[in-house]
Amino acid sequence: MNANAVVTPGARRDIAARVRGMDWDRVGTDLDAQGNALLPQLLTPEECTALAGLYGQDERFRSRVVMARHGFGRGEYRYFAYPLPESIAALRTRLYPLLAPIANRWNRTMGIDARYPDRHDEFIARCHDAGQTRPTPLLLQYGMDDYNCLHQDLYGEHVFPLQVAILLSQPGEDFSGGEFVLTEQRPRMQSRVDVVPLRRGDGVVFAVHQRPVRGARGAYRVNMRHGVSRVRAGHRHTLGVIFHDAA
């Protein structure tokens, strides 16, 4: 499958059907319980190969970041330019309306005033009106000994509180190590670490910044960060689907 095959109308329909077919009750429950939820087989192996193959096509991207130059870790990533490849646009468009009710419920619970519209294009219009006009979906590329430090993807005033990472490479075949890692810091407690087991084509939806946790005196905010552990061998590619644009 070549890179252009990911932009076909059939690919958009297939992605829409897979998104609809997820167990969204389970996704909501897992997000509430642990701040992340698995989206199994969100992309096919062929789609994963095609998307990873876009990395060398300069015209697809607006910028390239070498992590070591900024203290972000080792490895590199590239932000897509508009117009996005259709498959990535479809993921944004189809996932957002299923995640927006969860995001709104979280904000109500945490006492945050921001609310998110039903449609992704309406939210992107809000971002653009505030000067956040640069697209944020990205491809990440890791080689041996590369890693990504724990971080949060906050790009401006308007931040959608959930994002999705999709593994495009096969653990045990294309690479070893390179686990997706989440941490949460609860008040007056040590940080908790969660390693999310992913196979090629699996996505994980997770909290960008904070999530609510119920305590004895009501809900409180937990700070979340994510990263990737050291790749011990091979090469690893990941697609990041962020729903807000950058300033």
Structure report:
There is one protein chain. This protein has helices at 9-21, 24-34, 45-52, 67-70, 86-110, 120-129; strands at residues 36-39, 61-66, 73-74, 76-80, 138-142, 147-151, 162-167, 175-177, 180-185, 192-196, 203-207, 210-215, 218-228, 231-234, 236-241. The protein is α+β, with helices and mostly antiparallel strands and 247 residues long. It has a single domain (3-241), classed as q2cbj1_9rhob like domain (Jelly Rolls). It starts with 8 loop residues before the first helix and ends in a 6-residue tail after the last strand. Residues 1-5 have low confidence and may be disordered.
Radius of gyration: 17 Å
CATH fold type? Jelly Rolls
Order of helices and strands: HHEHEHEEHHEEEEEEEEEEE
Structural class: alpha+beta
What number of structural domains do the residues give? 1
CATH architecture: Sandwich
**Strand order within the widest sheet?**
1-11-7-15-5-4-2
Number of strands: 15
Poorly predicted regions are 1-5
Quick one: CATH class?
A: Mainly Beta
In short:
This protein has 247 residues and is an alpha+beta fold. The chain is built from six helices and 15 strands.
Features:
Jelly Rolls, 29% helix, seven-stranded antiparallel β-sheet, single chain, globular, 6 helices, 247 residues, alpha+beta, DUF2086, 15 strands, iron
